[in-house]
Amino acid sequence: MSQYDISFKPEDLISNIVFSPRPSEVLCRACGWNSYHECCAGYLPRLRVFYTGLNSGLWHMGNDYVLWDRFNDSALRNDYITWKFLKDKGTKDIPLVEEMHHFGKPEDPHQFTIMSRAKGDRLANVWHLSTPEEKENYAQQMTAALRELRQHTSPVPSKVDGQPLWDYLFGRCPGTKMCKTIGKTTDECKMKREFPDPAPYILSHIDLNFDNIMVANGRIIAIIDWERAGYHPWWVERYTSRRMALQYEHHELFDMVWAELDATIDEDAFEATVDNKVAPVLSAWLQCDTYHTEGYDIYLRPPFYKCKPWAALLRRAM
């Protein structure tokens, strides 16, 4: 073929691509990828869906960042509020993700949060492979983090920005977003005469399961998911770490943590002081009827694609 062969047309080599009309058939409704992008763009997105939940999705943004696309719920927004509070305080022993940026107005139906990735593994995947010395090292790091967290106190239960705390202990309805808040007086927080004395109110994470602790090379590099954090009664962090664990090994870690952090209150004393007082209240709440109208807003979305007739339900409930 001559260098200046004007009779040559690209269609001779790539049939029906280069000079075809721009197609617009959507191939993926999740990201908007269409047939033109696939055939002509020469681009491979660096955004990938990593996790999905009710009205929420977590996307990887390349290797260094993740994007949360979530329903605008104040319980979820608390993650960013608490992270920023701790970052501004200049924490020493509380490992946090390096960056976090929140987008969206309070009245927007959805919110977007970009944060740097904690490049490690979840403690849930590492603990059973660790030596006794490594486990003790993790316990010492967690103890130091909680000790520093306890330095932040408040005269009343609240989030770090002063807003009411969602009640994750009792007033929680399974399958829906949070609907009950914790009162800001001692009488409200006691709930009954024999309830544990709530003071002091200390900054607590209250969701310290192994999936929220990121580790690398024997170090805890980030504690994530601060949605439930706030100034809680002194006993709540310990109570939730013992009663809401997702892994059996979880107790092995926190038995070491609380033995050092709360050395004056052993397991038997804590059970008598807290567990035995909380259990009747929790049992009474669980026997109550709950009613959430948003649970009835259910829609069947169309199949994903003609050749892949998969479909699912869309729910307004969180």
UniProtKB/TrEMBL annotation:
<dbReference type="Pfam" id="PF01636">
    <property type="entry name" value="APH"/>
</dbReference>
<dbReference type="InterPro" id="IPR002575">
    <property type="entry name" value="Aminoglycoside_PTrfase"/>
</dbReference>
<dbReference type="InterPro" id="IPR051678">
    <property type="entry name" value="AGP_Transferase"/>
</dbReference>
<feature type="domain" description="Aminoglycoside phosphotransferase">
    <location>
        <begin position="109"/>
        <end position="235"/>
    </location>
</feature>
<dbReference type="InterPro" id="IPR011009">
    <property type="entry name" value="Kinase-like_dom_sf"/>
</dbReference>
<protein>
    <recommendedName>
        <fullName>Aminoglycoside phosphotransferase domain-containing protein</fullName>
    </recommendedName>
</protein>
